[in-house]
């Protein structure tokens, strides 16, 4: 396959960036998208050019480090798939592909396709945990949790923190990310002690990080690699209102 | 040099309690005067950093990823073992200890392994309290599944994302301490060197990967929880950034490395499909609970798997190991697959795979049940291969996975450098020559949550009078200078071959000669080839840009530079161990049936290695293993 790439190149946070054209011959359909990028970078390195900086690590869809806008969609054309699990068979010979970083006020660009997602860590730091120290835990089976509740908590907890929800949202809202953690912990008895306070402090931190508000377009759920449901956002709003009333 | 493992006195089951009862303590008011550096934020690093900070120590935590939550523990799928005996199937701490010792082919310390099994009970309690959503039965109690190499069900799981959920628990505990300002977290920072002052570990040199700046950080103790280095084989189940650099640079500062060649080759990964490939994705071992492994009985059988009738299939694991069947341990399953593939029965375009077939389980249990157990794995398989495993068997193949070897540590998880600890996969301690499935999450957590808080405190108790450690002493400045020189050297070669080019060459050498099976001739050849490759690397490497900026290519080059040295030590390690045990299969030492032939007379010891310089052969320092509670038997799963 022959592929034409238009890739966002930006030297650092302060510089202006632009789309740069690259041509790739002999792209194999079984290649992953990132392996295609590796092949491009090999060529650039040998010719002495700075390769395209992009985030990636586990390459099996779970670490949440990779993420690009591919033809305007977070992680590319497939549903519920990270960039690292996208393969070139999703494209055709002769295609032109636009590759850009995740764009949001809350995710400043560091270089090329790498963005700063440390705001997510700060949102978790505002209460996305159960306040239990090592050594304090009671016997694991002392609090039964029904199969359904455990599975539902897992569905919320499955978030990989990649930021596709923010990148795809027209408001750059981090509501899906934040609500997934609030819901995960609020559903379990272990997390319920702090549920109200957690909703207030995490939402406050989300607002402080320059993320926009949720206006219920539900685009985030469509692009989320883990298929995190927007019902988590409803749950977050409920916990938030309860927290405000009870505080 | 003589190694002292510092095993506490008394009967096996009382040793850890004895240690805890006699370990030195630090007064709460003194703890905030003591600094601890933790490198790595996987399960071992996050749990240690969080636990020590909760106790009141001042902790600095480092990771190269852009968030602590992305460390590679996140990718573990199947589960975590604990001897809770919730299934009432005869499990106990002793039985788990025995399974682990036997699984490791009697090449690990009894006392360490017993402690691992003992602490497994508390880990499940801790994780549940943090909100880890383990799989549960309808009544609300915790569920278990089986894993390879054991006959009980002791594996706790969160669908196929157990590592992720355990890591999120540890990460959240860590971030909670960051918010409480008891931990300072440095993401996108890579350790370049260890600083040793007056024989003690006193700090590290790191590079800020976003800016290229070099920083010096001092402390009263340094903990390395930097994971395994299976990525040295290039194609592996590990993340792209996994590396040996932190432990290797500590090794060159005097910390002994143990059993570096003992690498677990995982039997159920996706096969390689082309030269461009960057990693081999793991399919959880838990799939072997319901999947049956086979190859066609006929060589070069071109039929589709579903067209091959039952009688023309060779379920070779069930045939060779009827007692354990498809749940034979990993080393044995991988070797059996390699045997069939090498004999010409491999399947797929490159004839490098075997089938993992769910048709029987689907018929018996229905698609909904299989989906609930392994849904995410089946969908991952589909994303990568475009094949629907509900309709036809998966194709799987062995791949480099876990480093049983690592920095040598004593019972306290302290290396041969006082004040330098190694936790989790970065140390060699608990798995012997082969790790059982679902024991790695366990070991990482136990080291960080339950062992380090006692043993690091015991060390720090003698550091109260030290006062703050300056980061501008001669030792720090020298280490910083050397680290900068290496970076400058790598960018100034200006050759025409990439770091990946060398990494792929090295990986192939290791797979061929220091992988699933090894022999004297191949290992000697590999040592000579690695030396040549290293010379070529420093003559023809290409790294664009400078060290003073974000430079992913420079990061790679630094890791490959270390791999080119680690690989040589791995080959010496494999060459000098003239026996077969666990993952280490020397072709010269096997039974007529092709099973591993261990030599307890000559090799019942851990091989620890002392660094003498690049142009010198490493020196072997054996740590004899004594077994007082189990009889050394031939490890049979037949």
What does this structure look like?
The complex is a heterodimer of chains A (247) and B (638). Chain A has helices at 33-46, 118-125, 147-157, 164-168, 175-187, 189-192, 195-208, 219-223, 231-246, and strands at 3-9, 18-24, 69-70, 73-74, 96-100, 109-111, 114-115. With 247 residues, chain A is an alpha+beta fold. Chain B is of the alpha+beta class and 638 residues long. Helix content of chain B is 37%, strand content 14%. In chain B, the strands form five sheets. Chain B has a five-stranded parallel beta sheet with strand order 5-2-1-9-17. The radius of gyration of chain B is 24 Å and the shape is globular. The relative contact order of chain B is 0.16. Chains A and B meet through helix 1, helix 2 and helix 3 of A and helix 3, helix 5, helix 6, helix 11 and helix 12 of B.
Layout of secondary structure:
The complex is a heterodimer of chains A (247) and B (638).
Chain A: E1 3-9, E2 18-24, H1 33-46, E3 69-70, E4 73-74, E5 96-100, E6 109-111, E7 114-115, H2 118-125, H3 147-157, H4 164-168, H5 175-187, H6 189-192, H7 195-208, H8 219-223, H9 231-246
Parallel strand pairs in A: 1-5
Antiparallel strand pairs in A: 1-2, 3-4, 3-5, 6-7
Helix pairs in contact in A: 2-7, 3-5, 5-7, 5-9, 7-9
Chain B: H1 15-22, H2 28-31, E1 35-39, H3 43-55, E2 58-62, E3 80-81, H4 93-103, H5 110-130, E4 155-156, H6 162-179, E5 183-186, E6 189-197, E7 200-208, E8 214-218, E9 221-224, H7 245-251, E10 257-258, E11 263-269, E12 292-296, E13 313-314, H8 316-320, H9 330-345, E14 354-357, H10 359-365, H11 367-385, E15 394-403, E16 406-407, E17 420-422, H12 440-460, H13 474-492, H14 499-513, H15 520-540, H16 552-576, H17 600-603, E18 605-610, E19 619-624
Parallel strand pairs in B: 1-2, 1-9, 2-5, 9-17
Antiparallel strand pairs in B: 3-4, 6-7, 7-8, 10-16, 10-18, 11-15, 12-13, 12-14, 14-15, 18-19
């Amino acid at each position: 396959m022959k592929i034409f790439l238009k890739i966002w190149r930006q030297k650092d946070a302060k510089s202006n960036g632009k789309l740069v054209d690259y041509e790739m011959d002999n792209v194999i359909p079984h290649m992953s998208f990132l392996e295609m990028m590796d092949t491009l970078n090999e060529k650039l390195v040998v010719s002495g050019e700075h390769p395209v900086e992009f985030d990636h690590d586990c390459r099996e869809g779970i670490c949440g480090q990779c993420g690009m806008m591919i033809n305007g969609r977070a992680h590319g054309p497939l549903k519920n798939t990270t960039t690292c699990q996208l393969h070139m068979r999703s494209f055709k010979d002769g295609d032109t592909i636009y590759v850009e970083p995740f764009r949001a006020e809350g995710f400043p660009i560091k270089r090329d396709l790498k963005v700063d997602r440390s705001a997510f860590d700060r949102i978790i730091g505002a209460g996305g945990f159960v306040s239990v120290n090592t050594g304090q835990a009671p016997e694991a089976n002392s609090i039964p949790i029904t199969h359904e509740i455990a599975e539902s908590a897992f569905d919320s907890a499955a978030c990989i923190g990649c930021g596709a929800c923010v990148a795809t949202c027209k408001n750059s809202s981090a509501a899906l990310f934040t609500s997934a953690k609030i819901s995960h912990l609020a559903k379990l008895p272990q997390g319920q002690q702090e549920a109200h306070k957690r909703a207030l402090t995490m939402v406050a931190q989300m607002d402080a990080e320059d993320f926009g508000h949720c206006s219920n377009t539900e685009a985030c759920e469509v692009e989320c690699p883990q298929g995190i449901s927007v019902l988590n956002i409803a749950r977050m709003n409920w916990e938030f209102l309860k927290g405000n009333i009870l505080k | 040099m003589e190694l002292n493992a510092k095993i506490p006195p008394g009967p096996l089951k009382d040793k850890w309690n004895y240690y805890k009862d006699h370990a030195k303590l630090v007064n709460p008011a003194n703890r905030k005067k003591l600094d601890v550096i933790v490198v790595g934020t996987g399960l071992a690093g996050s749990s240690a950093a969080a636990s020590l900070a909760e106790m009141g120590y001042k902790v600095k935590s480092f990771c190269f990823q852009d968030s602590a939550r992305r460390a590679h523990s996140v990718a573990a799928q199947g589960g975590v073992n604990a001897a809770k005996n919730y299934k009432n199937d005869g499990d106990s701490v002793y039985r788990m200890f025995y399974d682990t010792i036997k699984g490791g082919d009697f090449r690990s310390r009894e006392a360490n392994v017993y402690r691992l099994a003992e602490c497994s009970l508390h880990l499940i309690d801790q994780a549940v309290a943090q909100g880890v959503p383990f799989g549960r039965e309808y009544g609300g109690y915790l569920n278990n599944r089986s894993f390879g190499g054991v006959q009980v069900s002791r594996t706790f799981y969160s669908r196929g994302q157990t590592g992720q959920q355990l890591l999120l628990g540890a990460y959240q505990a860590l971030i909670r301490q960051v918010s409480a300002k008891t931990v300072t977290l440095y993401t996108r920072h890579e350790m370049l060197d260890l600083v040793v002052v007056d024989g003690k570990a006193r700090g590290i040199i790191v590079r800020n990967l976003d800016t290229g700046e070099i920083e010096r950080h001092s402390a009263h103790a340094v903990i390395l929880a930097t994971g395994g280095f299976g990525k040295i084989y290039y194609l592996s189940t590990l993340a792209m950034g996994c590396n040996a650099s932190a432990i290797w640079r500590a090794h060159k500062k005097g910390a002994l490395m143990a059993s570096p060649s003992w690498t677990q080759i995982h039997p159920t990964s996706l096969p390689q499909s082309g030269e461009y490939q960057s990693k081999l994705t793991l399919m959880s071992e838990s799939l072997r609970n319901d999947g049956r492994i086979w190859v066609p009985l006929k060589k070069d059988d071109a039929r589709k798997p579903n067209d091959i009738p039952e009688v023309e299939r060779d379920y070779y694991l069930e045939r060779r190991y009827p007692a354990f069947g498809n749940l034979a341990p990993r080393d044995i399953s991988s070797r059996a697959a390699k045997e069939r593939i090498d004999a010409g029965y491999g399947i797929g375009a490159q004839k490098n795979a075997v089938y993992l077939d769910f048709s029987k389980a689907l018929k018996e249990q229905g698609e909904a049940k299989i989906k609930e157990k392994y849904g995410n794995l089946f969908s991952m398989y589909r994303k990568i291969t475009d094949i629907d495993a509900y309709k036809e068997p998966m194709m799987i193949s062995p791949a480099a996975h876990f480093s049983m070897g690592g920095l040598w540590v004593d019972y306290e998880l302290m290396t041969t450098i006082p004040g330098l600890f190694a936790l989790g996969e970065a140390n060699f301690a608990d798995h012997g020559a082969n790790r059982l499935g679902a024991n790695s999450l366990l070991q990482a957590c136990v080291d960080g949550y339950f062992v380090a808080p006692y043993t690091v405190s015991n060390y720090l108790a003698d550091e109260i009078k030290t006062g703050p450690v300056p980061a501008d002493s001669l030792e720090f400045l020298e280490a910083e200078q050397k680290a900068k020189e290496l970076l400058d050297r790598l960018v100034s070669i200006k050759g025409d071959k990439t770091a990946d080019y060398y990494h792929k060459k090295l990986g192939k050498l290791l797979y061929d000669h220091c992988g699933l099976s090894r022999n004297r001739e191949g290992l000697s050849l590999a040592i000579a080839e690695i030396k040549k490759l290293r010379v070529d690397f420093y003559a023809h490497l290409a790294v664009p840009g400078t060290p003073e900026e974000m430079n992913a290519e420079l990061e790679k080059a630094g890791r490959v530079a270390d791999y080119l040295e680690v690989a040589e030590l791995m080959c010496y390690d494999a060459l000098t161990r003239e026996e077969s045990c666990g993952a280490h299969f020397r072709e010269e030492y096997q039974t007529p049936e092709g099973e591993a032939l261990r030599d307890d007379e000559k090799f019942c010891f851990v091989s620890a290695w002392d660094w003498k310089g690049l142009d010198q052969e490493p020196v072997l320092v054996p740590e004899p293993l004594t077994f007082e509670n189990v009889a050394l038997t031939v490890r049979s799963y037949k």
